[in-house]
Amino acid sequence: MNVVVMLGAPGTGKGTQAPLVAKRLRIPVVATGDLFRAAARDGTTLGMEARRYMDAGQLVPDEITVRLLLDRLGRPDATHGVVLDGFPRTSIQAKALDDALAAKGERVDVAVLIDAPEEELVRRMSGRWICRAAGHPYHEVFSPPLVPGTCDLDGSELYQRADDQPETIRARMAQQLDALEDVIGHYRRSGVLRTVDGLQGIHEVAAGITRVLAEAGIHIEDAVAEHDPR
Ligand code: AP5
Ligand code: MG
């Protein structure tokens, strides 16, 4: 079983890079933000509750998030591993994940931190469009779709996330970065943290991730070889 955690501040490129890793390892991506957005779109109680926090730029409470994540990890497609995007986001979540994996004799193999300065992240999130069907991310300038307004991968409509408004971006940074530092510390202590410079193009970041995965004993074909990394 391979368990890869993608870490990074909002907008660093977790959602862009996680599917590239997952595809090569033939395991699913589990992105808690995408799960919450899907639940909110479906109008479930959990989705409505989560939306209140997301729209305010706050983290959804650990109790709700951990339950959602552990349910998802219990599904058959996660038997051989998972790439986690956006989880864990707090020390409590990191501990809950460790405990759940330890119960199966497993552990997090590597936590990849994509590191980029705040000004760059604001530029990335302000120009981001994602698809309705699966949340595939695009950027007006850095990663435009082939047909404006349409997802290259599944043809669904592109939209801008409610939490990508400038004031919510600021709130997300202000309210979530301390908890991210706690999670970084957690994985540094357990010896699985690897850092990739996120202030490079999408292909270069993908190559950096391939390298750090290899250092951690996970060998994947380089995404740069592909025609389109998305
Ligand atoms: P979530 O959806 O996880 O959002 P996030 O962590 O804020 O991260 P983003 O999705 O904004 O950024 P990303 O790193 O995926 O970047 P992307 O690849 O899209 O969470 C949303 C909310 O849900 C949270 O605020 C919270 O309320 C709640 N939540 C989720 N998980 C939770 C948890 N575990 N606990 C509690 N609450 C939780 O890239 C960004 C843009 O940049 C795109 O346009 C992309 O095309 C572009 N781009 C990517 N890489 C590059 C590059 N190298 N160069 C240029 N442009 C690039
Ligand atoms: Mg994302």
Helix content: 40-55%
Poorly predicted runs of 5 or more residues? none
In DSSP terms, counting alpha (H) and pi (I) runs of 4 or more, how many helices?
8
How many strands, which pairing sense, and closed or not: the largest β-sheet?
5 strands, parallel
**Broad shape:** globular
The separation of the N and C termini measures: 24 Å
Give me the Rg, rounded: 17 Å
Spatial order of strands in the largest sheet: 2-3-1-4-8
Total beta strand runs: 8
**Percentage of β-strand residues:** 5-15%
Helix-strand pattern: EHEHHHEHEHEEEHEH
Structural class determined from secondary elements: alpha/beta
Bound small molecules, deduplicated: BIS(adenosine)-5'-pentaphosphate, magnesium ion
The mean pLDDT is 95
